[in-house]
Amino acid sequence: MNVRFFSTVQPVPPGFQPWQPTRRDLLRGPVAVLLRDEAEVAALVEPLRERIVGLVLTRGPECASYAVTPRLWRIQVCPAHATELTVLLQPALGALAQALRLSDQCEQFAQMEARFHRDYDTTQRDYQRVTSTLESQIEQLKRVHAEMLEFDHLKDQFIEVAAHELKTPVAIMKGHAQALLRGIPARPQFLQAISRGADRIERIVNDLLLLSALGLHKLELRTEPVDLGALVQASVLRAAEGAGQRVRLGHADRALTRGDPKRLTQVVDQVLDNAVKYSPGGGDVEASVDVQDHQAVISVRDHGVGIPSSKQARIFERFYRAHSGTPYDSAGMGVGLYLAREIVALHGGRIWFESEEMRGSTFHIALPLLADGTPPA
Q1: Mean pLDDT value across residues 320-345
Q2: What CA dihedral angle connects 236, 241, 247 and 251, to 10 degrees?
Q3: pLDDT of residue 90
Q4: Distance CA 353, CA 302 (A)
Q5: Rounded distance between C-alpha atoms, residue 366 and residue 307, angstroms
Q6: Cα(71)–Cα(61) distance, rounded to whole angstroms?
Q7: Which residues are within 8 A (CB) of 264 and not within 5 positions of it... i.e. 6 or more apart?
Q8: Residue 83 and residue 81: Cα distance in Å, rounded?
């Protein structure tokens, strides 16, 4: 390796040849620079670009060196040894150039390692994000699959229940109609049976239409101020007709709410009807209307068979009948309480119950009061 020297001292010390380097020369290879002080020589190594690495070089007691910057180091040398600087610096600069190449390679490896770690971290985060997304989609697909299975089960259950419920009134109506066609004299009980069968079919159809409207979110409420005390009293009178036990209205606060009187009547009728049906051994069925915490609470209590604790969690599900297959099975489609809960929810209220098997049940219906209070007497 050729080491070139640049001197700023005039006259030039013995053994040095004056040379004026350009910037290109300084960037191309090792250069030794003799500064204004003849006793100080600075060696600057800048191969291709301006980066810095230090090197310590000494020669005998009259020589000393120290780093000015990591790649610029200064050599103290007496004038008598200045001529020998060429021989001194040539191998040192060669070693330094080799060290710089190794340093550059190490730096490149360090940069590659840093990029690898960054890429690895990015890949790991991407993998975790993709995995999380896939897991979320899998869970969603599982829920959709479960909902489809549940829907398919409900469809089969609906067909079975609807067919069974329609079969009985149709058979009764058909039997009495055929008797009349055969010329049997018309009797009031024949016509009454046909009328009851038609009423039962009408109720089933109305429940199915309401069920469909709720499922499609198309049920429209025709709201107006409703006196809940009067509404419950009318429902109690209807339930008492033909009941095998006493159905009465107990305490009744006068409370107004805003709602659809037809749908609210349907809810109260359903709860009273269940209380009567599931009290085969008799016992009073009592309804009440109370004002509690800025809401009206309708309660219906019976002393019947109650609801087994293992079946209470599903009592408001569609087509679910807690007493199906038991001696207390009163038929029906199992949608009454589901419809009641949905209608009450549309009015901004809620429905719940307490029940103990063979000791009866109490259902509560809470609705918001009109104008946040009871009307004046």
Answers
A1: 86
A2: 30
A3: 55
A4: 12
A5: 21
A6: 24
A7: 226, 228, 231, 257, 343, 347, 367
A8: 5
Give the residue among 217, 216, 207 at the shortest CA–CA distance from 318: 207
Q: Is the dihedral of CA 273, 310, 308, 328 positive or negative?
A: positive
Residue 27: CB atoms within 10 Å: 14
Give the whole-angstrom CA distance, residue 313 versus residue 330. Answer: 20
Residues 265-301 pLDDT 10s: 999 999 999 999 898 777 789 999 999 988 999 999 9
For 368, phi then psi, to 5°, come to -70, 140
User: In the predicted model, is pLDDT for residue 47 greater than 70?
Assistant: no
Q: What's the pLDDT tens digit per position in 88-140?
A: 555 555 565 566 567 677 788 888 888 888 888 888 888 888 889 999 999 99
Edge-to-edge strand order for the sheet containing 64-69? 4-7, 31-34, 40-44, 72-76, 64-69
Residue 13 has pLDDT above 80, yes or no: no
Please check whether residue 45 is in contact with residue 97, taking contact to mean a CB–CB distance below 8 angstroms: yes
**Phi then psi for 73, rounded to 5 degrees?**
-125, 145
Tokens of 321: 């009948």
- Which three-class secondary structure string do you get for 276-314? HHCCCCCCCEEEEEEEECCEEEEEEECCCCCCCHHHHHH
DSSP bridge pairs for 285: 247
End-to-end CA distance of the chain: 115
Dihedral pair phi/psi, residue 298, rounded to 5°: -95, 130
**In this structure, what DSSP letter does residue 315 have?**
T
What pLDDT does residue 271 have? 96
